[in-house]
Amino acid sequence: MASEKTDAVPFIKNGTAATITKTPLPAKKASKDGRGKALKQVMASFIANLGTINTGMAFGFSATALPQLKSPDSTLHITNDQASWVASLSAAGTPIGCILSGWLMDNIGRRRTLIITEIPLMLGWLLIAFAQNIPMIYIGRLLIGFGSGMVGAPARVYTCEVSQPHLRGMLGALASVGVSTGVLIQYVIGSATSWNILAGVSAVVPMISFLGMLILPESPNYLLTQVGRERAESSLAKLRGSTCNLEDEIQKMIAFKEKNHVEPLKGLRETIKALLSPSTLKPFTILAIYFFVYQWCGVNTITFYAVEVFEASGAMSDKYWLTISMGILRVIFTVVGCILCRRCGRRIMTFISAFGCGVTMIILAVYMYFVKFWKENDLPPQHSWIPVASIYIFMISCTLGYLIIPWVMIGEVYPTQVRGIVGGMTTCVAHLSVFSVVKTFPFLKSLLNDYGVFGLYGTMSLLAIGFFYFFLPETKGKTLQEIEDYFSGRTKSLTRRNTQCEGA
pTM for the whole thing? Predict the structure, then answer.
C-alpha cells in the first residue's frame, strides 16, 4: 500500500492516527500493465458531467435574455432592478442545493444524487419557458440555481472516485468544460431566438443527463465504505474493463480502508469531529478563499452581462457576435486547460490566471475611463480593439486556471468520509461568491462607474497572487493519501515530486 495510489482518503477515527504513506521515488515510471480501459472511465466521467452544462447555461442565460426582457416591446418587460434579480437568483438558489447534495452524496450515494439533481433543473427551465409573469421567471431561476448547486459537487466527486490517478486531473476538469459549453450554448441559441424558446431548449440537457445517469454504476469507493466488497468489485469491473487487475485494485482499497479506519460515520458527533479535523478545515479554508477571489476577478460579471459589458466597453463590432466568439474561446481554452491540468502544476496555472485576469481588467478599466471622457466631449472612440482584446485575453487567462483548478481540487483534498458534505459546502461558498459579485455589479457600476468596477476586479486578482504563493499547495503528482497527510500535519510539505503520478 505504501507505494500505490488510491482514491480513498483517510479520516482519524477515535483518536487513532492513520499511517503516513510515503511513496519512494522509482527509477522509472510505473508500468501501465493492469490499468483499466481509459475509454470506460472517460465515458462514465463524461455522462456524470453532462449535468454541469446546466450550470453554464444558468450563467449564460441572462447575457442574451436580459437585453430582450428589458426591451420596450418585450412581452414581459423588466426594470434594471428586476434584471439584477433575474441574473443573480440562480446563484441565490445554488447554496441550498450544494448543502443538500453534500448530505445526499454521503447518505444515498453519488449516482442517485446526480439523478435527483436533474428534476429541479427540468422544472426550472420549463417554468421559464412558459412564464406568464416575472415571479414565474424568478422561481424558475431559483430552481435552476438549486439544481446547479446540487450537481456541482457530486459530478466532480464521482469523476475523481471512478477514474484512476493517471486520468484524474484531466477528467476532474471535465466539469469546467461542461460549464463553458453551457455558456456557449446559451450565447449561440440566445442570439438567434427568444428568451422563452431558449429556456425550453435548455430543458433538453437535464433530460439527457437524467437518462445517462441511469446506466452508470455507483462509485466503488462509496460502495466499499457503505455496502461491501462484492458491490464495489462489481462496480469496479464495469468502470475498468478486462484490462484492469481488479483483484489487485480492490485489495488495495480494502487494505487502505482497514488500515486507516475508513468506515461510515455514525451520528452527528463523529460527523462534526470529521468536519473540524485539520484534514478538512485547512483545505476548505484555502478553497473558500480561492473561490471568493476568482469570482471577484469579474469572470461572472462578464459572463452574466456579456452583451452589456461589450456595449459599455466601447467595442464597435456586433455585441452578440463578440459574446458568441468569447463563448467559443472559453470552451476551446477550457479543453486546453484540461490537458494542461494533467501536465502542469495547480499553482502555475493559478498564477497565470491571477496575473492575466488582473492586468487585463485594469487595462479594460483604463480604456473605459477614456470611453467616458470621449462620450462627455463628443469625441469618437479610439483603438476600439483594445477592450475586445482585453476581455478575450481575460477569459483565456481565467479559463486556464481559475475556472478549472479549484473545482479539480475539491475531488483531491478532502477525506473520503466527509468528501460529499464538504464538497457541497465548498460549492456552496463558490456560488455565494457568484451571487455576491453578480448582484452587486449594477450597484457598484452606479457607485464607481464601469471603469471603477473593473479596476476593482483587476486589483483583487493581482493582490491574490500573494495568497496563492504562500498558501496554495501543489497537489499534482501526489497521491490522495499524501495530500491528506499534509493537511493533517503528519507531513510538512508537498514539495517532493512523485514521478509515478505524471497525470494526477
Answer: 0.70
